[in-house]
Write a sequence for this structure.
């Protein structure tokens, strides 16, 4: 076999190549085995390192978990403390607001009570005076009615008394003075006063009325009693004679018109007096006879600016004037009431400023509470995120 190989150089080359290939294969195999052993050693060392790293990681995770638990516990305590503080702040604010509200209510009640007391006192005083005045006037009216009854019962004596012109005039003046004294005060009227400058004519009574520019004007009031014409008219009515009644009625109207003309000429003097005067008829029956004469009162007012009145009518007129005087006095006192109301207004303004300041403080406190709420919600979100991360791990 060896001789054959030696005889054939080609075969020799092939064998050499095959042997070389086997040697190379063996060498490569040996190198691979060595590399495999090194790799295995490296893998074992790497596995040891990985295991050590895992242990350290587990320890770190355990430490982090414990730290997170402590942080969560601390945050819970902080949250509880914040809630306690918030509750305390709310309670303090509620108590402060309640105290301020009670104080404001007390101040308002005090101011209301003071104002009510002042107004009630003024109202009671005014009403008491008005009731006393009305009661007095009603008593005067009843007394006048009683006097009229007595006059009706003693008409015979009255006719004897009224036989003279002077006596009639004095009786009418006395009747008129009684009405003025019972209704008005002394400074509200004048007696036997001259109403025209440079004239000697004097009116029996004149009411002092407030005029323009703080001046005064006089309202003339004069009594008239044409008893003769009135008695003739009454006698004609008793007989039933129409012609006599018409004649006496015309004479009666003429007498009344003449008296109105005299009053207008003597006692109406504008601007010292009003533009009208009052004719006082001291008997209700006499005044009633004037009333039933159609157009008589209108003519007296239109042509002579004279207003006829009886006792009850004059009483009502004087009562109205008295109420007007009281109204004027109340208007003069209105400035005092306005001053008092101005003081009340200033107190309300100060109270409004106090309320505005309190409201600003409350709004600031509410803003602080809102900020605390925002911070609390942010902390709660952080805590929730930490808890979710811990659950995932």
């Amino acid at each position: 076999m060896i001789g054959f190989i030696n005889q054939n150089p080609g075969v020799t080359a092939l064998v050499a190549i095959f042997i070389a290939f086997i040697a190379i294969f063996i060498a490569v195999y040996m190198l691979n085995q060595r590399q495999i052993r090194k790799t295995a050693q490296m893998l074992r060392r790497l596995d040891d390192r990985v295991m050590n790293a895992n242990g350290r990681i587990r320890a770190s995770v355990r430490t982090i978990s414990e730290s997170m638990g402590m942080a969560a516990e601390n945050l819970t305590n902080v949250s509880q403390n914040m809630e306690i503080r918030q509750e305390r702040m709310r309670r303090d604010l509620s108590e402060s607001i309640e105290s301020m509200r009670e104080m404001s209510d007390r101040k308002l009640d005090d101011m209301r009570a003071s104002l009510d007391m002042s107004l009630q006192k003024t109202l009671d005083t005014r009403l008491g005076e008005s009731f006393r005045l009305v009661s007095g006037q009603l008593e005067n009216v009843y007394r006048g009615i009683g006097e009229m009854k007595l006059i009706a019962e003693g008409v015979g004596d009255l006719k004897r008394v009224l036989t003279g012109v002077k006596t009639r005039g004095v009786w009418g003046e006395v009747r008129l003075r009684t009405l003025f004294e019972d209704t008005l005060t002394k400074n509200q009227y004048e007696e036997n006063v001259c109403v025209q400058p440079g004239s000697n004519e004097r009116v029996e009574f004149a009411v002092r009325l407030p005029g323009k520019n703080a001046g005064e004007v006089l309202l003339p009031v004069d009594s008239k009693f044409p008893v003769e014409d009135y008695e003739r008219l009454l006698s004609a009515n008793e007989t039933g004679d129409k012609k006599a009644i018409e004649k006496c009625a015309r004479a009666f109207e003429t007498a009344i018109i003449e008296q109105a003309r005299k009053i207008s000429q003597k006692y109406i003097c504008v601007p010292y007096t009003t533009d009208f005067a009052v004719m006082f008829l001291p008997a209700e029956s006499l005044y009633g006879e004037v009333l039933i004469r159609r157009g008589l009162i209108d003519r007296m007012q239109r042509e002579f600016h004279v207003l006829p009145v009886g006792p009850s009518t004059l009483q009502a007129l004087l009562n109205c004037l008295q109420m007007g005087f009281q109204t004027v006095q109340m208007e003069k006192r209105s400035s005092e009431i306005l001053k008092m109301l101005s003081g009340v207004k200033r107190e309300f303004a100060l109270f409004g400023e106090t309320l505005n300041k309190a409201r600003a403080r409350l709004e600031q406190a509410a803003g602080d509470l809102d900020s605390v709420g925002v911070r609390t919600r942010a902390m709660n979100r952080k805590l929730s995120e930490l808890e979710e991360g811990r659950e995932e791990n």
Q: What stands out?
A: The chain is about 80% helix and 10% strand.
